[in-house]
């Protein structure tokens, strides 16, 4: 029951006359000497005769809204709307006129002057009804508004909650002296916009010396003040806000400190400002006792929301710093990603995705999932991402890269047991071939143009960190325009759905795109059937259909790529014999091709790089070599041979280094002229490459 509600009881006979009434009804409704006995219900509550007659006729209760008040209040037009419920009573014996035929229960708002009269009602409204309802809120802004909705109207006419700025903003250092405070919420029962204009929400301010507000925040004790006209004017002058004088004139103001147990500063961490106007009873010692109990309980809720907010902000900052901010790929490959946290309470986890452009028009596409949630899983995910970038930079094949990750997870597991799953795909946009390996991860989905979607049959391997067997890979060719979809298990599995059903649903999303390929209304057909539109973003939306409302879902990471080879005019390769004359021929072929590509600025440097790489291949590897130029994001010069020996850089390339007088200069020259270079393994040997920036 709220403090602003009064309940009145009237016993009525079948004619509608009052034969019994309670004390509240006598006090509020009697408008004549002798009280209510014998008065007609229609005279006491205008409009009450109709629900009475209907209740007596049907034998069921009737409820209506009617204006209720004393005769004087009704005449002056200040009667209050009340809920009137008429309950028919059991039939009585003839002649038993003292027994009521019906009971009228009237619920009406109490007069303004009586709102804060009963301390027991106020205590119940604040501490038992209102505070438990809002105290569990973990959002600090929502909590502040909820607390003010409890204080106003059950304890005061207007109020505000202010907290020390360093408590709200973790990056704000604690201030010495009077700390700055931020107004978190404001409420008033009269709806006057002047309160919000004079005391804006979100304002950060330092209260002037000598004000009650300064005394409360410094001492941590409640402060009770009654503002006369002169006092309100002086306070308004100190603040430099003239409207404050009219708002506070004649009010009773009580400041309730918010004290935190672990606060590292003396005084209060903030306070509630509570004011009552002249139409209501001013605050007294009993109000201070009730208010301090409310403030103490509210402080625990504020502290919990503050801790949760800081931990959540830290966790989100950590995860956002660990997840990639941009995806790189060859110009012919389109890539789109989507990450969805598991829930609002746990917004960090171990799912991640990567798209890393590799030299020579290749791209590494990776999706992984560390078991568990929270900061620990996110930290492990960050370590794996860093390792993935390092291994991709070494041009390791997918299977070998996952084996190296498995060793890393085994090392991490010695301190914190963890395991993870990962799918690793390398696509070559020159040859149009993919190589894929998986460590305990769900199979990638492949959708060729106009063909049904299929899950790739990848050789099974144990998750990372288990280390029970080797990782195998599969290599295959793909058509231009093929969609490759990598995902984590949160997309297809939850507590109420089997993983096979989720996989089938996901495949149907891609199949609908294949069905729409031959229709004139293809895009509209796909959207109507839940398969997304033509873009990769719409496809991700279609794949996520039905999982947004699942409150118990796991994290979801998705990576979708539309694979397409780069134009044939942007790459060329030549077979060269293992003889000294091939070096001269390589320089001529390079100069001729760069002239066709209108890159004369790079002709001399590229010819020198090609001659050094071809010379090294002929001298140290033997057999035929392949020279390749690729124009994609830069100019790549690559030489492939049949040896698997990795070249080594010798010496320091100083002019007086005798070791490099006749030999050993090749890789030093490459390192000086190219912006980066490296070695990768091939099916028949190795490839040494170097890359220059395009002008």
Automatic annotation (TrEMBL):
It catalyses: O-phospho-L-seryl-[protein] + H2O = L-seryl-[protein] + phosphate. InterPro entries: Bact_Sigma-Reg, GAF-like_dom_sf, HATPase_C_sf, HATPase_dom, PPM-type-like_dom_sf, PPM-type_phosphatase-like_dom. Residues 330-563 form the PPM-type phosphatase domain. The keyword Metal-binding applies. One of its GO terms (molecular function) is ATP binding. PANTHER family: STAGE II SPORULATION PROTEIN E, STAGE II SPORULATION PROTEIN E-RELATED. This is protein-serine/threonine phosphatase. It comes from the Bacteria. Primarily acts as an independent SigF regulator that is sensitive to the osmosensory signal, mediating the cross talk of PknD with the SigF regulon. Possesses both phosphatase and kinase activities. The kinase domain functions as a classic anti-sigma factor-like kinase to phosphorylate the anti-anti-sigma factor domain at the canonical regulatory site, and the phosphatase domain antagonizes this activity. Signal peptide: none annotated. Its EC number is 3.1.3.16. Keywords: ATP-binding, Hydrolase, Kinase, Magnesium, Manganese, Metal-binding, Nucleotide-binding, Phosphoprotein, Protein phosphatase, Transferase.
